[in-house]
Amino acid sequence: xxxxxxxxxxxxxxxxxxxxxxxxxxxxxxxxxxxxxxxxxxxxxxxxxxxxxxxxxxxxxxxxxxxxxxxxxxxxxxxxxxxxxxxxxxxxxxxxxxxxxxxxxxxxxxxxxxxxxxxxxxxxxxxxxxxxxxxxxxxxxxxxxxxxxxxxxxxxxxxxxxxxxxxxxxxxxxxxxxxx
Length: 180
Known about the structure:
CATH topology: Hypothetical Protein Tm1070, Chain: A
Helix content: 10-25%
CATH class: Mainly Beta
Distance between the termini: 58 Å
């Protein structure tokens, strides 16, 4: 029984003493949560007929549009937006590519810089960043537009129904938030 008392007494002393400092509940004001979300935007595969009108003549501009389906709940916390683009061009022609934002009535409100030159027979992967001061355009946009311009050929090559080649475009968007 004496042994039992000697074991209980030190345990009670240790149990009633605190081994931690005071808790600072004000530090919650300094907490922040940084996160990002990735969404697929568009995947298109253009062939020669996509670049021809009803008379089988080349058309200069092809556009693809998607509706912005992101709500505005994180607007105050959005720090930056990155667009990842993968483009493969197997045509013997160059293209010029841009990402544009349009409002609900279809007016152009923002073009993501830079506009990209796509060389003939090339593959390209790039990330375009919308800077923090321009992220409001992301929320003001109703539509995202992907525009391919077919400039005149330097070598005289034209696209017709028998032209072999594809222009493949894949895109994703990453939104970076800081909830603090």
